[in-house]
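DM between two lab members

TW: hey, do you still have the Hydrolase entry open?
JB: yeah, one sec
JB: this one, 281 aa:
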Amino acid sequence: MNKLSLEELISRVDEIPVFSQTVNRIIQITEDPKSTAKDLESEIMKDQGLTTKILRLANSSYYGVSRNIKSVSEATVLLGFQAIKSMVFASTVGKVMERELPGYALEREGLWRQSQMCAITARTLAKKIKFPKPDQVYTAGLLRDIGKVILDTYMKEQFELIVQEVELHNKTFLEVEAEVLGYNHSEVGARIADKWNLPQDLIEAIACHHNPEQATINPKMTAMIHIADGLMMMMGYNIGIDGLNYKFSDDTMTLLSIDESVLTEIMSEVADLIGDEGIFF
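TW: and the structure you got?
JB:
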C-alpha cells in the first residue's frame, strides 16, 4: 500500500493551484484601504463567470438585501469588501470541492454544499456574538475540509482500511486517518491554506476545527468553525461517513459565551436558507 508522507502529499498537489492572478489581485484590492468599489468591480469583471456568481450570491436570501443588486460595485457598497472577498473564495474553491468523494461517502457536490452550509452557519454565529470579522469566519468554514479533496484524490488505497476501522471500532474518521496515514484531513487542509498565503488565524481554524482547544492565535474563530461543523452534523446535512461519529467540544460554548438556545436560533436561521439555491451558485 503506497502511503505518502504529508510533505510528499503536499508536493504532489497540482490540481489545487495557488489562486489565479485575477483572484490574487482581487484579494489585494479588498485588503487595500485606498481601494474603491470601482477598483474591485473592474478587476472582477475581467472574469464573467465570477461576476455572475457574485451577483447571484449577493441577491440570495443569505445576504437579505431588500433591493435587486445589479452590479458588483453596488454589491460592494452594500455588503462590503470582505463579503465580496469571501464570495470570490467561494467561487474559486467551489470548482474543486464539487467532485464526488467516495472515500468519505459524499456524492458529487456533497462536500461543496456541506462546506457552504458550514460557512453560512459559522458566519451566522459570528454575527450573533458580534465577532468583528464574520466574513473571514465564513471563509474558514468554507475551507475547513479542503484537505478531504486531497486525501480522497491521492490516498484512495488507504480509504478501504480507514472505513473498516471507523465502522469496526466506533472511532472518528479523524482518529483513524491519523492512525493509518500519520496525519488527518485538517492538517492537510491547513497546509493547503498556507500554500495559498491565507491569514494565520484562518489556517489555524482549518487545522484545529476538530480540536479547538489547541488554537492559540484566534481561539474564538476556531471555536466558531468547530461549533458550525457540529451544528451542521446535528442537522444531518450531507454528513458523509465521518459525520456519524462527530465529537462536540463543550468548552467552545463557554469561550463564546453562548448556550443551547443560541444554537437553536442559529439552526433555525440556517434551515431557512437551505431552500435558496442561489447560495450554492
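TW: got it. The chain has 16 helices and no strands. Residues 241-245 have pLDDT under 50 and may be disordered.
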